[in-house]
Amino acid sequence: RSSYSCCYFVLPCCFFDFHGKYSRRQCKKTQYREYLDFVAQVGFVCGFHVEEDCLRIPSTKRVSFIGKSRTYPAAERALIDKQITQFINSRRTCAVATCDRRVGFNHKDHSGGLCKEAGSEPPEDETETAGTVWMPGFQPREKVEQIRNCASLPRDFVDEVVLNVANLLLNAAPQKSCSDKQGGNMNTWNQGESLSLREVAEHLNKETLKKLKSEYGGLQTLLKNNHQVFEVLNGKVHIRDWRKEKPPSKTKPEVKRRLSAEAFKTRLCWFFIHHPDGCSLPSEACPYAHGTEELR
What we know:
The chain has 296 residues and is an alpha+beta fold. It has eight helices and eight strands; from the N terminus they run βαββαββαβαααββαα. The chain folds into three domains: 8-95, no CATH class; 149-171 and 191-240; 242-295, no CATH class. Strands 1-3-2 form a three-stranded antiparallel beta sheet, with helices on one face. A three-stranded antiparallel beta sheet has the order 6-8-7. 10% of the residues are buried.
């Protein structure tokens, strides 16, 4: 829209519209394909011959669009620009957080979640082109995006929550007997109990819950991040038993299997250090280090 001679290349990734997150409107397509079609539509509305290409990059989102030529002569630029303005206005959603409070809205289509501005013509200040504000009220994202997936929480805090939850599961029920499949004997290893996320949260103090509430996913995300210790499935949390994990594929060449096994020993085994019965696996079978001397 900046000039008639402008060309563009775009690699769609995050699902965003002009004023906020993209809202799905079709269920017969995947979310990615639907969003790609929307981005291509933007190019067509802006008067481009839109070409689609697939990049040779190691990503699941590799489809790109290129606009190298226009579908209209330069003399019709003002008409197309008006068409673009109307298209942008039609994409505005009714959400209070994204709607421009300075402009009135009328609900016309309740099923589609769209709304039209009062009056058939776009606001006067939005009909002009370069050098003016195209979207009043637009709020860009912050330059530095806050990480809220529990990854930036202090390590001491995370370790304390993990230990508290693990002790809660281990002490929630009488010790379960479970045969040691590696050695063939009947040594017991406490697997603990399975509790719901709500039950676990009820046993955590208010300060801990308040800290977790500011993170996306909260307690569930923190527990899933610590997949060495926990398994979260269908809202239930239980201690992970590494004896039940599938062994590495034996189809790999011997050299690759050996290198893979060596690469695993980069972290200490939580069970070896904290579990009352120690690790359920012998040192040679455990993917984590039983002591600092095994760290690689």
